[in-house]
Amino acid sequence: MSEVNNEIFIKIEDMEAATLSLLETAEKVGADTYQQRVKNQTPHCKFGSEGVCCRICTMGPCRITPKAPRGICGCDADGMVGRNYLRFTAGGAATHSDHGRNICHVLYASSEDGDYHVTDPEKLKRIAKEWDIETEGRDIYDIAHEVALTGLEEYGKPFGVQRFLKRAPEVRQQIWKEAQIEPRAIDREVSQSMHMTHMGCSSEPEALVRQSLRAGMSDGWGGSMMGTEFSDVLFGTPVPCDTYANLGVLDKDQVNIIVHGHDPAVSEMVVFYSESPEMIAKAKEVGATGINVVGVCCTSNEVAMRHGIPMAGNFLSQENVVLTGVAEAVVVDVQCIFPALGPLSKCFHTKFITTSPIAQMPDSEYIEVDEYNAGEKAKIIVETAINNFPNRRQDVINIPQLKTKANVGYSVESIKKCLDGVTNSHVDVLNTMIPLIDCVKSGVLRGAVAIVGCNNPKIRPDYLHIELMKKLIANDIIVVVTGCAAQAAAKAGLMSKEAKDLCGEGLERVCRLVDIPPVLHMGSCVDISRMMILASDIAKDWGIDIPQIPLVGCAPEYMSEKAVSIGNYVVATGIDTYLGVNPYTSGGPQIEALLQGSVKDWVGANFTVNNDLDELTSSIQMCFSSICICSM
Fold it and tell me: Is residue 158 within 8 Å of residue 185, measured between CB atoms?
């Protein structure tokens, strides 16, 4: 087998060639893969794609056609599309916020002698102060438990709005209030969304879109933000660190454990026990040289930015990891996990281990992990993987020789610290975004694009992510990334510091002076809440509202309900957002007119849908040109 390709940059064609070689392995063992399932499922239902089918009561299902312009209840196309869109958003808001709820419970269970500890006490105290919780003279775990309980109350409190809304500029808070989209209790917004879309309730487009924005806000400024902030408290606020990406991070001589999903509570424990001398000794007893933990999807982002754990791939790479034949265990928590991993793993020696009652799947070994037994169960999981090492099928091992460097872990705090490092003027500019603002004002940087989201088989996987990033950084636009978009950048080498060589003159100079890559890794998809804090801090330091910042959001390959929820809260925050896939709204002209037009009058931003690379790049650059920086 040849040496791993450690080139700085890897072309998407090389990654596609690696996938084709793995599909040959799939055919050899009789395995099912998503590529074949896509062929079996296309063409997709036209009514579903346009959002004009309804099954929320049993009088139907109904669908809108020229001969039948209304459902049996009388709902028209816009009412139908709007209800479906709101339900889609509510599903995403519930999912991300339930992730945050679990992290609240983990924080509540933390203790000096337990499995989980407070790793960043200073951040905990800052949040406590923000929430008017006394910290002076108190035990850190007493503070943690009160903060966790207060966070849990955000899910069901009877009055008021989300506490974290106060982090936004005051003018933005007032806009939310006037637009009637301030999120109240998180669970209330999800529940009210389901109520509004029940048969016989709302079908008025504007009301449905307003509630979609509000439900999304309950995620981004509620559940997701708590998930991010409390994960930092528990597991450490990320600081820049080096790691590797792509399938070449798998090691044929080691026990390979793949952590996959989104919630870091399980993966943190797996990483801890994989590094213990006891487990490493056991691995050597069965013939391995050690234990190699690698990640897939957002769980990968979580452990990469805190521990430097390598990133094997993103959403549409998850089957490829098993197809290498060297995965002893795929350990999953929640969200974006293919049920296909169960039967696929059975074609190899791989153990497919599910750990959450929320994500139970056929053909898996279920080892339930909670906040009180995590250490014990993680140890069992690591031992299970070790004991499986001798069971490999040597005839199907195929590790694509692709591996790139990545510099990850740019939390808001880390970005400010990096900027402080090149600020030699006045003390009052430290711990602010002023140096970055000055770069934009002077024209050194044209702006920033937050590229987020999943992969989608409707789009050539990773193509829009990677090629759009290349075009943007070449035009002096810095890129911040989370989720599967981050792993696309990492696999291609765009999160290495050497990627400054692909930049325009201005961005190259900034990257060289600040010692950062041009594509900044901010974490997992719940960590898009970091981007909202970053945007708010820039606006407050600049003395403007968020829509006036040269910043846009982009999800060119998204696929999930969570992504639609994210899009709603990013737009509601005042950040224009570009999508590469239509969110099943094309059948409702009034809904599309609101989402891609009129909501800008409410919140200062809206959606644009376009999956053409050149047109997408041009639209984003024109958006920046419309903002007059010099007058600010």
Answer: yes
- Pinpoint the alpha helices (H) of 134-290: 140-153, 170-178, 186-196, 205-218, 224-235, 264-274, 277-285
Instruction: Quote the Cα angle for 223-225-227, to 5°.
Output: 70
- The HSE-up count of residue 433 (CA atoms within 13 Å, CB side) is 18
* Distance, CA of 123 to CA of 22 (rounded, Å): 44
Q: Is it true that the peptide bond before 61 is cis, omega within 30 degrees of 0?
A: yes
Confidence of residue 197 (pLDDT cuts 50, 70, 90): very high
Judge whether 247 and 323 are in contact, CB under 8 Å.
Answer: no
The tokens for 35 are: 């590529």
pLDDT at 335 over 60: yes
Here the tokens at position 194 are 């389901």
Cis before residue 43, ω within 30 degrees of 0? yes
The set of long-range contacts for 474-477, using a CB threshold of 8 Å and a minimum separation of 24, is: 474/502, 474/503, 474/504, 475/446, 475/504, 475/617, 475/621, 476/444, 476/445, 476/446, 476/503, 476/504, 476/505, 476/506, 476/507, 477/445, 477/446, 477/447, 477/448, 477/449, 477/507, 477/620, 477/621, 477/624
Token readout for 568 is 């709603």
Helices and strands (DSSP H and E) totals, the chain? 26, 16
pTM: 0.95
Are 319 and 414 contacting, i.e. CB atoms less than 8 angstroms apart? Answer: no
Report d(CA 148, CA 122) in Å as an integer: 15
Query: Which residue, chain included where needed, has tokens 């999304």?
Result: 216
Q: Which residues have C-beta within 8 Å of that of residue 146, sequence separation ≥ 6? A: 128, 133
Q: C-alpha distances in angstroms, 3 versus 7, 15, 245, 400, 484?
A: 11, 16, 16, 10, 27
Q: Contact 450/552 with Cβ under 8 angstroms? A: yes
Cα-based torsion angle of the residue sequence 120, 123, 128, 129 in order, rounded to the nearest 10 degrees: 140
> What gap in Å lies between CA 410 and CA 417, rounded to an integer?
10
Residue 5, pLDDT score: 53
pLDDT at 3: 41
Which residues share a beta bridge with 555? 579
Q: pLDDT of 562-583, one tens digit each?
A: 999 999 999 999 999 999 999 9
Contact 350, 322 (CB under 8 A): yes
DSSP string over 334-358: SSS--TTHHHHHHTSS-EEEE--TT
CA–CA separation, 590 vs 294, rounded Å?
A: 46
Provide the token pair at 450.
Answer: 């937050």
What is the rounded distance in angstroms from the CA atom of residue 20 to the CA atom of residue 320? Answer: 10
Q: Measure the CA–CA gap between 220 and 380, rounded to whole angstroms.
A: 35
Angle at Cα 564 formed by Cα 478 and Cα 410, nearest 5°? 30
CB 34 within 8 A of CB 319: yes
For residue 418, give the amino acid letter.
C
Computed over every residue of the chain, the mean pLDDT equals 95
3-class SS shares of the chain: helix, strand, coil, % to 5: 55, 10, 35
Q: Beta-carbon neighbour count of residue 302 at 10 Å?
A: 29
Instruction: State yes or no: pLDDT of 505 exceeds 70.
Output: yes
